[in-house]
Write a structure and sequence with these properties.
- This protein is α+β, with helices and mostly antiparallel strands and 369 residues long.
- It folds into four domains: 85 residues, conserved putative lor/sdh protein from methanococcus maripaludis s2 fold (Beta Barrel), CATH 2.40.420.20; 90 residues, Efflux pump adaptor protein, beta barrel domain (Elongation Factor Tu (Ef-tu), domain 3); 60 residues, RNA polymerase II/Efflux pump adaptor protein, barrel-sandwich hybrid domain (OB fold (Dihydrolipoamide Acetyltransferase, E2P), Beta Barrel); 75 residues.
- It is built from three helices and 22 strands.
- Helix 2 packs antiparallel against helix 3.
- The longest helix is centred in the first third of the chain and has 37 residues.
- The protein is rod-shaped.
Length: 369
């Protein structure tokens, strides 16, 4: 190749390259492109409810055991079943009463006989007093007559007590509900012979159930009687109740205490024995809060993103607490004067540049015509 041709070509290339470099230096460096458009909010101080979360079981408020009071009688009729609602005094079962009716009739006959004997003894004692005053009866004869009269009156009282006893025994052949409520268990079977004290039914008094929540010993002092409670039963039903009593002692094994929470009588799908979760309200307290959308959870930790004056994002690790009405309490890691990204933090990284726009104003409500 001709050297005379190469030298001018090389010189021309060097001139063009120098010219391009000079142009690049003359142009200004463009600013970094924003990665996202965001709106900012400021943390707010407000009142948030304080609550204690607990687990426990639903149980009958009080369960009455209904049994037979007489011995050796056969059940002839059962009028209720499990789940039936009964009122105080309703007949739940009937026992055979033929023998007791005969014994009552015998006791009434004995009472009538004793009353007749007492009337005769009374008449004799009255005549003896009159004759003794006239001198026809001695004091010894009068004393015998009066003693016979007193003995006859005592036999009347004994016979009357026997009638009352047989009447009570006869009434016990009808097994009655001691209170209003719901039958929770039934062992009574027609034809079976029961003994005194044999359990026939169980009754949830007044149909009331309660939630027995387990709380730690450190939480006992914060719970007040009458505090509102929200309970979620295993069936999915939500119940509103209030604290009736806090147990006076702590379990030595678990170191937990029981909180008894009254629940409404109309419990729907909730049943005694179910597992339930709940929250016990303790009042309200001041808290620093941000919108729930401003908190991003990554790798088990909570973060918020703040924007500085240079429009760059800073990632801050925070500790969160209570939640209410779409806001989250920040207990540490955030200052009150910070400018926090309201939403979209999941798409940001530390050091990103963003473009800040004003939050859209709430649409005015239409005027009434």
């Amino acid at each position: 190749m001709n050297k005379n041709f190469l030298i001018p070509a090389l010189l021309c290339g060097m001139v063009l390259s120098a010219s391009a470099s000079a142009q690049d230096k003359a142009q200004p460096v463009s600013a970094a492109k924003p990665s996202l458009t965001v709106t900012l909010v400021s943390p707010q101080m407000g009142l948030l409810p304080q609550k204690i979360s607990a687990n426990g079981s639903l149980a009958a408020w009080q369960e009455a055991v209904i049994g037979a009071e007489t011995n050796g009688l056969k059940i002839t009729e059962v009028r209720v079943n499990v789940g039936d609602r009964v009122q105080r005094g309703d007949v739940l079962a009937v026992l055979q009463s033929d023998t007791l009716r005969a014994e009552l009739a015998q006791a009434e006959a004995a009472l009538a006989e004793a009353m007749a004997s007492a009337q005769e003894a009374k008449a004799q004692s009255d005549r003896a007093r009159s004759l003794q005053q006239q001198g026809f009866f001695s004091n010894a004869q009068l004393s015998q007559t009066l003693a016979a009269d007193a003995s006859a009156q005592a036999r009347v009282q004994s016979a009357r007590a026997m009638v009352q006893l047989q009447t009570v025994r006869l009434s016990q052949t009808q097994v009655r509900a001691p209170d209003a409520g719901v039958i929770s268990a039934r062992q009574a079977t027609v034809g079976s012979v029961v003994g005194a004290g044999t359990e026939l039914f169980r009754l949830i008094r007044q149909g009331r159930i309660e939630w027995r929540a387990e709380v730690t010993a450190a939480e006992i002092g914060r719970i007040l009687v009458g505090a509102p409670v929200q309970v979620l039963a295993a069936s999915g039903q939500q119940l509103q109740g209030k604290v009736r009593m806090v147990a006076p002692s702590v379990d030595a094994q678990t170191r937990n205490a029981i909180v008894y929470v009254d629940l409404p009588s109309a419990v729907g799908s909730a049943r005694a024995g179910m597992f339930a979760q709940g929250e016990i309200a303790l009042g309200q307290s001041q808290a620093l809060t941000v919108p729930q959308t401003a908190v991003v959870v990554r790798d088990g930790f909570s973060y918020v993103y703040t924007v500085g004056a240079d429009q760059k994002v800073s990632q801050l690790k925070v500790q969160t607490g209570r939640q209410s009405a779409g806001r989250v309490e920040v207990t540490s890691g955030l200052k009150a004067e910070a400018r926090v990204v309201a939403s979209g933090g999941a798409f940001l990284n530390h050091g990103d540049t963003v473009r800040v726009v004003d939050a859209p104003a709430a649409q005015a409500a239409p005027a009434n015509k």
